[in-house]
Amino acid sequence: MKLYFADLSADLLAAVAEVAPILGVELCDDGLPVYVKKEGSGLSVTFGADDATITYEKKVQLFRAIGLLVERADSREDVAETPAYEDLAAMFDCSRNAVATVESAKLRVRHLALMGYNTMFLYMEDTYELEEYPYFGYMRGRYNKEELQAIDAYCLRFGIELVPYIQVLAHLMNAMRWPAFREVHDCDAILLVDEPKTYDLIRSMLTMWRDTLTTNRVHLGMDEAWTLGSGNYYRRNGYVEKWKIMQSHTQKVMAICKELGIEPLMWSDMYFDAAANEKGYYYLASLEDGHVPQHIIDSVPEEVDLIYWDYGNFYERANRMCKMHMEFKNPIWFAGGATIWAGYAPMNQFSLWVSRDQLRACRDNGITKVMVTCWGDNGQECSHMAALPTIQMFAEDCYANNNADEHVSRRFATCVGASYEDFLLLDTPNFTPGNKAPGCGSRNPSKYLLHQDVLMGLFDKHADAETFPAHFAERAQVLAEAGGRNPRWSYLFDSLSALCHVLEVKCDVGIRLKAAYDADDRGEMTRIADEVIPEIQRRLADYIAVYHKQWLHDNKPFGLDVLDVRFGGIERRLITARERIHAYLDGEVDSLPELAQTRLRYDGAPEGTNLNTNINKWGLTVSGCQVDYI
After folding, report:
1. Which of 268, 370, 373, 481 is placed for a possible disulfide with 91 were both Cys, Cβ 3.0 to 4.6 Å?
2. Which residues contact 520 (CB under 8 A, 6 or more apart)?
3. Which residues 6+ apart lie within 8 Å of 524 measured at CB?
4. Confidence of residue 629 (pLDDT cuts 50, 70, 90)
5. Which class for 405: exposed (0-12), middle (13-18), buried (19 or more C-beta within 10 A)?
6. At residue 441, does pLDDT exceed 90?
7. How far apart are CA 409 and CA 405, in angstroms?
8. pTM score > 0.70 for this model?
9. What is the pLDDT of residues 285-314, one digit of tens each?
């Protein structure tokens, strides 16, 4: 399609040119004349006899409006949208090893602009440089100031605010590993509250952000500090209630923010856990009359935006959580999740299912700040870009008040340049028999069946030798075909297709090997050792090559080393399995204790229960022996 913008500034025209390839648009003098006006509220697209007019309130809405114009060019159907949320944000995790390259970050910005997002958060525990602290983010792919400013400038081109999401209390395990931070360490991944050097570090963090980005906002984190005060703090001060420690720490951090002109945001979970007498974040939502005591509400500084996160509760509990949050005097955000944190495949269909309920609860309770999070627990094995269907749905809920699949699909084709239905196929490696769409939370057989050892068979009771191989074979083919239909995104489909190709032969090999050992079927053991295991090795090598391509397309190389260690463990244990089997067959050993061991279900559930389970810690999937649970 050809478009001609006669009255756009050079800067805006340059930004439109950045998204034009996604839209399949050519900017030229003989294109459809499009007149642009910055006026009114929301956005509109109006078609004339031989031209079109766009109005917009906020800069980013111009780019969403251009996408709507292209989408409706044939029908010439006018459209007007007023966003339901004043803040619509997407958050990308750059702390679980996958630090997006600058170019990858810019690609995300272009798609967010077409969807209409006005804020992008980057989650950076220690993946940014602090000049005074050389070990902060050391060997983690941390961003330097120039990279951050390049991303910030690119966001501003489209009217998107780049906001850093950091940590000033917990989740600093990678920094705390270094002796250089011993003096500010309480326990686990938690900073030592009331230690002056802790606040020197936090001041350095916040000063860096003030001096680097154009935003005044900083997300401070301060979530999930469940063991707060139980390490060095306890040795110094004895037992102190966690909410009182939080109050002391928060006041000190707020004072630094005020001094530096920073507008802070933080999670709400520690306050809700304290209100529930440490029974958990969502405990109060399980009670019909749950409420947060006034002294907890009063302990939260008024200047901080408070964020309610929820990735699994449906309407009833989400509604209760919203109501309790609205009792606070603070501005309230809701943060939902695009589930890409449970292995190599996303779980968009579950995220879409639960998020629709949560967003309805937000609307019913007047919450007007909404964020979709893309976490990367346990190494960010899944690409952030696989979350795009859920990210699109949040945008449509905001602007069109329509989050139904048919509408989201049409908009996805415009804003992403791909098939929504095909992207949802990326979930399906985990939809083994018994875990049908939309899936159940984070059940992730495609991860634990990949990493489990063929001799130990920790998850053999969670696979079916008769149905699972056929499932993975069919998925490999379906995903390969979907990649062909979406060439711009083929690297995502190719990677998961290759994974399924491995699992087709690996998912049941342990089951068959143990059965052969128990029956003393030496012919079958020989076949497995000399035919099946070498085939797994060949397919695994192909998968690793494709996965490397995916990782380096999206991220800096730091963190790929962790995945290589995990893949290398699979390779080495396959070699060991062949050696052990042949040692037994050749009479060098008279038994294989690994295969003699009775197999149990990993989750301890009774026989006949759903085979699928959720184990997302790599160290827990590879051995029953001691492994660092990274």
Report:
1. 373
2. none
3. 512, 515, 516
4. low
5. middle
6. no
7. 6
8. yes
9. 999 999 999 999 999 999 999 999 999 999
- The rounded distance, in Å, linking the Cα atoms of 301 and 197 is 23
Question: Could you state, in order of their start, the residue ranges of all structural domains in the chain?
Answer: 2-81, 87-417, 426-622
Going edge to edge, which strands form the sheet with 43-47?
A: 26-27, 2-5, 32-38, 52-56, 43-47, 79-81
Q: What angle do CA 12, 16, 19 make, to 5 degrees?
A: 145
Q: Give the length of the chain.
A: 630
| Position 357 pLDDT exceeds 60 | yes
**CATH homologous superfamily, domain 2-81:** N-acetyl-beta-d-glucosaminidase (3.30.160.230)
What would the pLDDT profile of 174-205 be if each residue is shown by its tens digit?
A: 999 999 999 999 999 999 999 999 999 999 99
Residue 308's Cβ-side half-sphere holds a number of Cα atoms within 13 Å equal to 31
A 10 A CB-CB count for 390 gives 27
CATH class of 426-622: mainly alpha
The residue to which tokens 């390049």 are assigned = 150
Q: Which residues of 351-375 are buried (b: 16+ CB within 10 A; e: fewer)?
A: bbebbbbbbbbbeebebbbbbbbbb
Asked if pLDDT for residue 330 goes beyond 90, the answer is yes
**Fold (topology level) of 87-417:** TIM Barrel (3.20.20)
Q: Compute the distance between CA of residue 15 and CA of residue 29 in angstroms, rounded to an integer.
A: 17
- State residue 10 phi and psi, 5-degree precision: -60, -40
Measured at the CA of 555, the angle between CA 67 and CA 309, to 5 degrees, comes to 70
